[in-house]
Amino acid sequence: MRRGSIVQLVAIGIVCGGGAALVAILIPWLPDPASRQAGRIDFVFWFVTVICIAIFALVAAVIIYAVFKFRAQPGEDMDGPPIHGHTGLEIVWTAVPAALVTAISIVSAIVLAKNDHVPRASAAGKADPLKPLVVDVTAQQFAWSFQYPAFGKLTSATLKLPLRAPVELRITSLDVTHSFWVPEFGQKQDAVPGSVNKLIITPDRNGNYPVICTELCGLGHAVMRSRAEVMPEQQFLSWAKGQQKQLGGGGGASGQTVFTNNGCNSCHTFKPAGSTAKIGPDLDNLKQEAQRAGQPLEQFIRQSIVDPNAYIQPGYPKGIMPTTFSSLPKAQLDALVKYLAQGAK
Ligand code: CUA
Q1: Burial status of residue 173 (CB atoms within 10 A of its CB: 0-12, 13-18, 19 or more)
Q2: What's the confidence (pLDDT) of residue 250?
Q3: 17 and which of 57, 91, 159, 297 could share a cystine (Cβ 3.0–4.6 Å)?
Q4: How far does residue 28's CA lie from ligand 1's centre (Å)?
């Protein structure tokens, strides 16, 4: 092969590879990772992308060079010269891809194993609720709820997480299959009724990220969203303890906290809570609705929370409101009923 041909081949390869590299780098294909696991997944992505760009540049250079160099002249209708295969070349183009695919498998296997690893507090050390922080994630049509067993089963409608603490999410569903996804955390996990699927996340960037349901689960699938909020550890602990205090027995549960923690505000309009959602009935009209149902206000509210299908406001379909609120601790349920009754007056 002449030196001029090699220079031409290399030049075409650099142009093609450079173009592909620009497409890979300049377009934000993936969100900025906000967890260690997402960082590792990004590494695999870039590892594979670099290999792909190199192979693309090589193949594109040879094709483009051959198309111009060996083009048939006008009127030329002879066969090409009879050439037998090149054993050395064949060994190289089999061995190199085999080595690359093996390398990708090894890197992926290491990342998968690391991402599934849960750091445990040492047996000798005293139990640390943040090693790992266990969060029970419950999906239902069409809402997420997050419960913190280490903090007195504290429940929240948004996923609050401390920075840099390993988190073990135990994901399940009450009705159909949903799927938990925070793009910045880099992983998805199905929420399946009757089983608990684990997902390990170690958030490493403060911020607010969307929690998305990524499995078509019914009419409200598109609105089945929440937020994940990553904050410094101290801020998380003071939030968790403050919530525990507000929800704790002692007669002090705050109705408004129960209302927002259980996600009532993501479906209902209620002026005192500043919520304007329109999936369920407007709770500012509770008084008229209780009259229509022929019940005293507080009794009507309590029944509507623990047994939502007992009375359905005209114009709303049955079975949309989750039936799980019957398991709210009594102090929280009482506070919620009182809060709604007061706001409706
Ligand atoms: Cu739940 Cu889609």
Answers
A1: buried
A2: 47
A3: 57
A4: 26
Q: Distance, CA 217 to ligand 1 centroid (Å)?
A: 4
Q: Of all atoms in ligand 1, which is nearest to the CA of residue 139?
A: 1
pLDDT single digits (tens) 169-208? 999 998 899 999 999 999 999 999 999 999 999 999 999 9
220: CA distance to ligand 1 center in Å? 7
Sign for the CA dihedral angle at 149, 151, 154, 160 comes to negative
Q: From the CA of 214, how far away is ligand 1's center (Å)?
A: 6
As a whole number of Å, the CA-based R_g of the chain is 29
Report the alpha-carbon angle 39-40-45, nearest 5.
95
Task: Report the range of poorest mean pLDDT among 44-48, 59-63, 117-121, 294-298.
Answer: 117-121
Q: Which atom of ligand 1 is closest in space to residue 214's alpha carbon?
A: 2
Strand 187-191 and strand 275-276: the pairing is: unpaired
Report pLDDT digits (tens) over 67-102.
998 888 888 888 878 888 889 999 999 999 999 999
Among 32-46, 94-108, 241-255, the range scoring the smallest mean pLDDT is 241-255
